[in-house]
Amino acid sequence: MNEVSDLNMAPKKKIIIDTDPGIDDILALLLAFSEKSADVEVLLVSLTFGNVEVKSCLRNVVSMFHILEKEMKWRREQGRPEGFDALRARAPIVALGAQDPLEDQKMLADYFHGVDGLGGIHDSHPHLTPQDAWEHLFDPTHEPVELKPVSAEPNAHQSFIPSKRVAHEEILRVLRENDPDTVTIVAVGPLTNLALASAADAETFLRAKEVVVMGGAVNEPGNVTPVAEFNAYADAFAAARVYALTSPSPKSTLPPSKSLPDFPPNLSRQLTLRLFPLDITLKHGLNRGQFRKAITPLLETGSPLAEWVSAFMAHTFATLERLHANQRGDSAELSLHDPVCVWYALTADDEGWKPSEKSPEDIRVETTGQWTRGACIVDRRDRHPVDGDEESSSDHGLWLSRRAGNRIWRMDKSPAESNFGEILIERLFT
């Protein structure tokens, strides 16, 4: 049931975060856990390959919880508010997911995020990485371990619940155990886990309130090829399959697959998918000058979280300077792709969020092109729509059919384009 403490209050937001941490993924997770517990529950953090191998993603998430335990203890000792209310109120489940894409050759983004996903922090700052033998907690052949709730002691195992199920099975379990239209899935990595979940049980997957996706580039250039954004490129087949569930006729856009079956022909509903492509995420950034101004006083007073975040952000700004001629000094700016999606899930009722005027749009992901894998394809022709559901010689792909094609809500404007970086830092550190 929805949790409503007062007739005038909105129900608590329940979210699953599917992620491949990754620098901006970690910032997105920190943002979610910093929210008030009365407003949000993070039910599950499901992990996929993407920026780095999935086991490195797991180490980064465990390290984050380890640091947050130390940070909350430090804040108590300093007489400061602990923060991270959502985390203290409910330990999320963490599940290990896809190691490889469905069909494509694997590509990682370690060229930007570093070989470990956080700029080499586990080697450069080993005292910030938990040394416990925690990997066995996710091994289905190992005996279960009794976990304690979040407490004052900085133990890396107290603020999350490790799952021995694979991630896509955990996604389906959470959706089954909650009422339809109460759980939002925020997907900020390749969509492999979501594609596997929907292939295993499409009707259960469609119980999600909506799926919020960081991926693609529609009117902007790509960031890994001239036309493709990384998440869409890293598993184009998975993205195309998930997008197809938004269609009144999923078979009209479903890519052929060697590994997964087609969806059942008569699904009970269509998926609501909110797409955050580079077109909107590039408008939200955090530059080195903003970050240094906020973080320096916290470093001087001994904040463990400030030390940890500062270490991988230093790598990030240096990488931006190396990759881009116009990124120098305090103006070097990290685009906050993934935190924007979490921010939407937390503040979706804000009237400042606007989809494109054309939404819902028929946006499809190219899966087989030599140069266009992962590209977002839209029909830019000025043609009359038709009612038919059969291909014609003048409409290959059923682009003009009212009964076919995807129905994507492409997000175009946010309430925080000018100052989102400052909002993020304030949420995390004050």
UniProtKB/TrEMBL annotation:
GO CC field: cytosol
Listed SUPFAM superfamilies: Nucleoside hydrolase
Annotated keywords: Glycosidase, Hydrolase
Entry annotated with the keyword Cytoplasm: no
GO BP: any one term: purine nucleoside catabolic process
Single annotated GO MF: purine nucleosidase activity
Record domain Inosine/uridine-preferring nucleoside hydrolase: where: 15-383
Record keyword Hydrolase present: yes
InterPro entries noted in UniProt: Inosine/uridine_hydrolase_dom (IPR001910), IUNH (IPR023186), Ribo_hydro-like (IPR036452)
Protein family: Belongs to the IUNH family.
Protein name per its UniProtKB record: Putative Inosine-uridine preferring nucleoside hydrolase
Organism expressing this protein natively: Aspergillus calidoustus
